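Board work, copied verbatim: Aminopeptidase N
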Amino acid sequence: PKPTRLEDYTPFNFDLSESRFDFRLDPRQTTVRSLLSLTRTAPGPLVLDGENIDLVSVEIDGRLLKRTAYRVTQTQLILDDVPDQFALNITTRCDPSANTTLMGLYVSGGRFCTQCEAEGFRRITYYPDRPDVMSEFTVLIDADKAAYPTLLANGNMIEAGDIDGGRHYAIWHDPFPKPCYLFALVAGEFDRLDDSFITMNGRTIPLEIYVDPGDAPKAAYAMDSLKRSMAWDERAFGREYDLDRFMIVAVRDFNFGAMENKGLNIFNSSLLLADAQTATDLNFERIESVVAHEYFHNWTGNRITCRDWFQLCLKEGFTVFRDQEFSADQRGAAVQRIKDVRALRARQFAEDNGPLAHPVRPTEYLKIDNFYTATIYEKGAELIRMLKTWLGDATFRKGCDIYFDRLDGTAATVEQFIACFEAASGEDMHPFMQWYHQAGTPRLTVERHQTPTSPVISQVVSFSQMTPPTPGQADKAPLMIPIRWQAIGDDGPLMDPQLTVMTTDTQTVSYPRFDVPHSLSIMQGFSAPAILRSDATTEDLIRLMGQDPDAFNRWEAGQTLARRLLVDCARALESGTMPEPDPALGAFFGALGKTLRDDSFDDAFKALVLTQPTGMEVLMAAAPIDPIAVSEAGDWLARAVADGLRNDLLQTYAAMKDSGPFSPDAASAGRRALKGRCLSLLAARFDPLAASLAAQQLDDATNMTDEIGALITLSRLGGQRVESSMESFFEKWKDQPLVLDKYYSVQAMRHHADGIHAIIRLAETPTYERSNPNRVRALVGGFAMGNVRLFHRLDGSGYRFFADQVLDMDGRNPSVAARLLGAFEIWRKLDAKRQQLIRDQLDRIIATRPSKNVLEIAQRMRGA
Ligand code: B3K
Ligand code: ZN
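↓ predict structure ↓
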């Protein structure tokens, strides 16, 4: 297969001002008639995209074309000879009920829905399926009235009524020209949750959330999040909503989280529905951020879209940044930043330092679906954050205003975006662009030098950067790295925070002499997506854990210490020795205990301080290494912390016991998070008390956070109680698909005595739905990412099972299959034996001639 390349970009050779589509819906055979008004802008044939659809007829200006007047290939409809201005009428048919890819028009739970980003619209009708072709859409939907009482599309409804044969219709018009990837259509029977929002200019916008019958109460939190998002975007970015109504629809079968279709967002029900009994605090938190994310796309993505898919970070990186800022405002900046960086390190750093590494703006792809990655989203967001750090809040906001003003209604590029900040700041932004071109995570080395001779300037710190090679990019240039730093003494900071913007390989900065012991807090707030290699001693880290005014770095100091302990321990375990009692441990526990007892920190922060670096971070730092040794090192450190802090943990657990009715707010969630951390640490000692606390918590639980937390703790402890608890959990929740997903994921991550057979049995249970992405992600994804012992078994059974499941999914849904396969991206970080085992599986996958999606991932992963 031939890749698509950024350098080959050419504009479409026709202008498509208006598009009209008539859908006659039928699950087996839906007919789509499109009417396009085209005006030529450059010579050449008219080439339209189309896949898996049957062409019925083509008309030009009302004249039926002969079959010889056009060419139809597997992926295109080509008209060689067309006038300069004309109306094109195309009739096609498709079979939504047979569409297992969940791209284009498909049926989920008896309801019609669509997913068009990135290239799904071509599965609906022949059309220029590219983001730079923007058109004003009018959509008529005609369907059986009893089966599909609700008919929705983008924009405003302009007409509706009944037609013969028990059918009815609705006509929708979207006044904002848009690319077809933002098109949506929904039809079916729904319950609706209604509310409204008054915009900054006093317009009242009806808000409607459509869910499966009976689910409306579970959409309340999403509705609340939506209203807060709308208000926040006005406040923080001056962005007002533009259409006359805003709709969200929840569906159960969905390839990813949610989709920002203009005026009609479609959500995976797992990111929309929640109540105390069935959703965890993490679910609530994610609902809030994804509802915000999709809403924010209305400006960053829809009003201003992407010229081509290489510019994906233009909408995704910026929108993630915006949703992170929103969550920071809603839930506390420090805690939010810590969570975002933890996720960045576990997912994006792993990607950026493995075989799938690619720039934030890639230059070629086989399947664009494979580029909805942590790099484009999360690293893309970090680049926006660095811009803000570098330019300052006011200039950053000015640049955003220029962007919204200058590029509204267009399909833009990263260069155009950056030019707005150049205009706002007068800075030369050229050096910053390197972040968009260059893959890989920079290593930032910090060294303090003693210069006792000068009485005035006595301290010098030097920074040097280096980015290791990534596939296809051997040589790296220096990046512009904003470094926020500060000297900290035993009673707090000794100077104001500094911002050093590094542009070369090395840079040296001096600062005043302090005659007291002090440490340097570097990269405060995680001011750049880099891996810090600091010469900080244990004493420095303990000082920062206690005194750093930057909450992120206070947390980070503990993480750095823990990371060092974990890497040493994992290496010791791998070589068959027991870790030496580390002299740093005592001081570390002391600092942890102090934080735990300090009332000035919120509970959510304390919970994060008690959370270890992810296994992925340790794996990357210690690679190549036996992944089971990494996991055992985690158990060892948890046990050590629990031994060292047993009383503190017990007391905190008791103090966090819930009082009053459930509320999903950040403070209440923080209490539950801290309580959960204490319980899980206590369980790491196999403390009999922990087992009884967990059992008690499971019996008493009135919310899913406590219930599943207790269940997971019990499942780690093993023993009799586990099987019966798992069974009663299943019985209790088997009719709630979203909770059943949780059941499968807890099962997938357990240490079953009979190994892989238990997982295979789960995949054969009648409630396991292999065509539902959420269920498959719960079992197969949960297994590959969360069951270190079974997935990485040296007999290769885990890898084989996983590869089988990926191939099984590939037959139905290539984009989900390719995404699952990403779990193998760490293979080069593992020991030689396991590398061989995974290499065999990758070769096996490639040999089966999989989909383009899976082929691209497998080949890139396999390397040259
Ligand atoms: N833009 C969509 C993602 C589409 C993924 C297509 N493979 C959701 C989002 O980022 O908001
Ligand atoms: Zn997005």
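The CA atoms of residues 405 and 420 lie 10 Å apart.
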